[in-house]
Amino acid sequence: MSNQRERLFVAQWVLERNLAWVAAAEIKVGVIVAIDTALLGSVGAAYAAADAVARTSWAYLWAISAGVAAIVGIFCAAMAVLPRLDGPPKSLVFFGRIGKLDQAAYFEKFKEASDVELLEDWTAQIHRNAQIACEKFSWVRASMYWSFISILPWFAAILTLLKKQ
């Protein structure tokens, strides 16, 4: 890249890509929570519909195992969507720092910032948002893991509770 303006343009593109990755992690959470909630609801409904004979120790074991795994999956999903509000200490890009300034002060700081200062700010934001995306996807992965684990005991619980004697 031959000049600072080109670097700023590339930095803007990279920052936008990183923000898209952060959003992508959060979109996956909605699906996971919906599935886990349905799983919990169906175990509860099967338990309520089961007669006393079907409520065996095995049924309890499977239902509790499925419920615990699904709840852990939902917890991990919640951790993925928690906002990360720690950004660079001085930034003209991060909303947390912008919001602490009044409009006139922000305008002046932005107007006076050099291309080099803006590039430093943007690359700091790129790096921080990459860290956030990694952390969020780690929680999404854990959530998916626990959700998949819950399927086997869920299936066993449903079969055990709804089995006709």
What are the main properties of this structure?
165 residues; mainly alpha
Molecular structure report:
- The protein is mainly α and 165 residues long.
- Helix content is 81%, strand content 0%.
- It contains 5 helices and no strands.
- α1 runs antiparallel to α2 (57-81), α1 (4-49) runs parallel beside α5 and α2 runs antiparallel to α5 (115-162).
- Major sheet size, sense and barrel closure: none
- Return the structural class: mainly alpha
Gap between N and C termini: 74 Å
Shape: rod-shaped
Model regions low in confidence, pLDDT < 50 over at least 5 residues: none
Average of the residue pLDDT scores: 90
Roughly what fraction of the amino acids lie in strands?
under 5%
How many strands appear in the DSSP assignment?
0
Taken together, the total number of domains comes to 1
As a whole number of angstroms, the C-alpha radius of gyration is: 24 Å
Order of helices and strands: HHHHH
Helix content: over 70%
Annotate the secondary structure layout.
Layout: H1 4-49, H2 57-81, H3 95-98, H4 103-112, H5 115-162
Helix pairs in contact: 1-2, 1-5, 2-5
Short précis:
By secondary structure, the chain is mainly α.
